[in-house]
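Q: Okay, next protein. This is TRAP transporter small permease from Paenibacillus agricola. I've checked the sequence twice, so it should be correct. Can you predict the 3D structure?
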Amino acid sequence: MSDKPARRNILSFITDALDKCLVGISILVGAVLTINIIVAVFFRYVLNSPIYWADELSLYLFCWATFLGAALAVKRSDMAAVTFFLNRLSGRANILLSMLIQLCMLFFSIIIGYYSIIWISSPSVMNLLSPALSMNMWKLYTIVPISMFCMAVFSIEHLIGFIPSLFGKRGGTAQ
C-alpha cells in the first residue's frame, strides 16, 4: 500500500460538500420536528389548547427528513438491501453487480426527479395551498427533486469509483 493520499476529483469535493449540506439540513429538520412535537403535545394535553397547524408541520418535516435520509443513505451506501447474491460473488462479478445496482439507482433517481419537477411545476400544485400552514405546496414538495438530484450525483460518484476496481487498479470503492 502506498503512503500517497488518494487523488480526489472535483466530483468528490462536490459530493462531500453536498453531504455536509444535507447533514446540516437534516439536523435542522430533526430539531424543528422534535421541538414542534414537544410543544404540540404540551399545548394539547397540558394547556388543553391544541396548535392547529402542528400536525401538518410534523408531517411535512417528517417527509423532508425521510427524503434527506434517503439521499444520505445513497451517498454512504447504507440503503436497505438484500445482499444474498452480492455477498456470494467475488472479484469482478461483485463489482459488476454493484455497478448494476448503482445504475438502477441512477435511472430511478433521474426518472423520479424528472417527473417530480413536472408534477411540482403543474398548475394544480403551483396554485395549491396547504390547509393549515397556508403555504404553497410546491415549496413543500421541492424536497423530492432535490433528493433525487443528490441521489443521482452520489450514484455517479459510486459508479466512477468502481471503474478502477473493474480494471484491476487500486482506488475503487467497494460497497
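A: Here is a summary of the prediction. Residues 2 and 68 are 36 Å apart (CA to CA). Helices lie at 10-46, 54-75, 92-120, 123-126, 137-141, 143-166.
Q: Noted. On to the next one.
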